[in-house]
Structures are given as structure tokens and as C-alpha cells.
Amino acid sequence: MDCSCVSDLLLTPSMPALWTPGFAFPDWAYKPESSPGSRQIQLWHFILELLQKEEYQNVIAWQGDYGEFVIKDPDEVARLWGIRKCKPHMNYDKLSRALRYYYNKRILHKTKGKRFTYKFNFSKVVLVNYPLLDMANSSFLLAQSPFSGAHNPECGSLTPEALQTLFSPPRLGDPGNRSPLFERQVQNSEAEKLRMETAFPFLGSGVSGYSKPPSLLAPYSRNLPFTDYPWSFNPYLSGAFPLAGSKLPGSLYPPHFYPNPLAQMPTPVSILPGEANLERSALTPSTPARVCLPPSLGTLPLRGELHPLPGRTERQAMGETPVGGAKEDLASDSELEITDVSECSSENDFSPDSVEERPGLLQHTMRKYKALANKPKEATAGQLS
DNA sequence: AACGGAAGTC
DNA sequence: GACTTCCGTT
């Protein structure tokens, strides 16, 4: 009420918080779990939001390589952040302190020598989008990273047990209904949190990380569109957003960074599980679930077989249409500076999610992944392409 | 500008 | 836990 700060950019009624057209983050990343008791947006989310809003290109923008961005107007970013957090006295000094705390979490790191330039640990973003994928490739991915395998204890943590944990079915008490994309879990279980933290340590007490994305994750296209991605996989293209009909400005997707998904999205590989395996009712009926899979998953069991992280992650990877329309999304884009206060304490509760139990599949998938992970990259790529 | 410790807030 | 605030240091 008295806090005339919050932008409704991400709190449009018809749309859950943190609508990010180019990125898809599992709901657990949206807060309740990552910060028990708090529902506020995290700074890195906010940064990502700004980064993909065309209107803030002069404030903050992707620049340089791979995940690197420049805060062109520190004061403005701080101001926006302050508005978002109802911290009128926010400034860049404080904001940057918060950013520095991300260094240890491996979410960000500083691009030395470049003023106001930071870099996302991009692999983590990919991880968030395609957790299973990343896990599947973890061995050789990490092997290629500057902080590879032997030096990376995390690499060894991706054990079948970890997978098991990640895939473990929900507790019996967990609600069994699926919720539409963007609805977030409210009654998310600790198990879920544990699963996530196992897979995405950076969100917790993370350890590993690579400053450079694994080569398999492909360099950004400098000139070519989608085809430049070795496996037609745009890590920033979640596919979880209204594609057809959406009118996201192409400029939101700098070609050198991530091609315009709307214009260049190739026919994606569908990992749509069989109808019997997926409760399609939760999906927008007219919107085919789709996802661009990297070749590494090309030979993995698809349709009805691959059923990674049943629930949130899967649906995102499948390109579920978010609640609300693109039009509203766009309309809200320019309202970051909204001064509507009511949002300050508004709640954005979402329905609980569910996880399906597929023990057989789990075993199968785990074996497959393990096999894949143990193969040389080339061989794997070949086999998968 | 950038860093990071320390204490405080929610 | 994720900042916010303050501040001394590089």
C-alpha cells in the first residue's frame, strides 16, 4: 500500500511472476523453495528479465560472449531493482554487492577488465532448462570444462543415486494433479527441493561450475540462425512460451546470442511422452508440446520412454504454453516501473505440482545416460545425431 | 570500480 | 537463505 514500488512486470494477474519469454526456469527457482519463507524474486532472475526486455537494452544488455552482459546504466538497474524489492535506497553499490555474492554460488562471475560486465554461468542456465540433459552429459561436459572432472567433485556426484533422487517419485501425500506451467508448487516437498539441489547445486551450496560452457553446449551463433546450433538447441529458448502468435520482438534475441525462436525455430523433436504418460489436460490443448533437443538426447527414449523429472521440468522442456497470452505478456513488458503498490504484498500462489512414478523408466533412463556419459563425445554425438 | 567482511533485515 | 547496508581496502 505504502510501498509504491513493485513492478507488475512479472506479476500480471493473468500471469504468474517472472514471466520470461526467452528463458524457462522451473518453478522451484522462483522462490518458495530456494528461499523458504520468501517469495521475492531473486536478483539473478531479475537481471535475466531485464536482459530480455527490449526496452531495457540501454540499461542492461547481453554483450560479449556467452552469457556476458553489461550493465549500461548501473543506477537505473539499481533503481529498478529497488523498485522491485521495495528498497527505495537501493543503489549500484548495494546491488553489486548482491551480485558478488553470486560469485561463490557460481551463478555469476565478473568479467574482469570490463566495467559493469558480468557473466552468467551459462551452463547453469542450461542446467535449469534441461536438468536431465545436463546430467546425462555431465561426464563429458565437465571433462571439457576448464574445471573438469578430476578437479570437479561435483562431477562425481552425479551418481545413479543422485539421479534416483532426482527422479524419485513424490511422496504419497503429494498432490497428484499437474498444474499448468508457471504455476508453482506451494506444497512442494522437501524431497523435491533435495532433488533439485542435487541437480543444481548452484542454487544451494553449490560447488562446481565452469566459467565456460562446455563445448557441447555450442558456441553462440555469430551470424547464422538456428542452424548454427549443432543440435538445434537454443538454451535460451525454452519453448515453454507462446510461440506461434507471440510477437516477441526479435531484438530480444540478439542473433549473436540467441536467435529469434519465433522466426527460426525448427521443427523440434518432440519428447512428448505418450498420452498415457502425460496428463495432457494440464497443457494447453492446442499447443503441441515441443522441445528442441540436443543430439545427445536424440537416441534416448522419446515418446513415452523418456520421462525426465516428470512434472515441472518436463513440461517446461516441452514448451508448454504459459498461462496468459503473449499479448498480455507484451503489455506488461513496459510496466516494470509500475508504481502499483498493491503488488508489493500480493501473493502469487500456484497449484502444487506432481511427479509421476515411473520406476522402470527410471532404471532404463539411468542406464542409458550412464552409457552415454561414458562415451567419448564424438562417438556419442555420432550415435546421437 | 570492484571486492569482500560484518552485521542487520525479512 | 538472500539479500541489504555499511564500509575499509585494493
Automatic annotation (TrEMBL):
Keywords attached to this entry: DNA-binding, Nucleus, Transcription, Transcription regulation
GO cellular component: nucleus
Major location category of this protein: nucleus
Biased composition (Acidic residues): 331-340
Subcellular location: Nucleus
Alphabetical list of Pfam families matching this protein: Ets (PF00178)
Residues in ETS domain copies: 41-121
Domain of life: Eukaryota
UniProt region (Disordered), positions on chain: 302-361
UniProt keyword annotation of Transcription regulation present: yes
Listed InterPro entries: Ets_dom, ETS_fam, WH-like_DNA-bd_sf, WH_DNA-bd_sf
PROSITE patterns documented for this protein: ETS_DOMAIN_1, ETS_DOMAIN_2, ETS_DOMAIN_3
GO BP terms: cell differentiation
Single GO MF descriptor: sequence-specific DNA binding
Comp. bias (Polar residues): 342-351
SUPFAM superfamilies tied to this protein: Winged helix' DNA-binding domain
Stored PANTHER family: ETS, ETS DOMAIN-CONTAINING TRANSCRIPTION FACTOR ERF-LIKE
Family: Belongs to the ETS family.
UniProt-recorded name of the protein: ETS domain-containing transcription factor ERF-like
Gene name of this polypeptide: ERFL
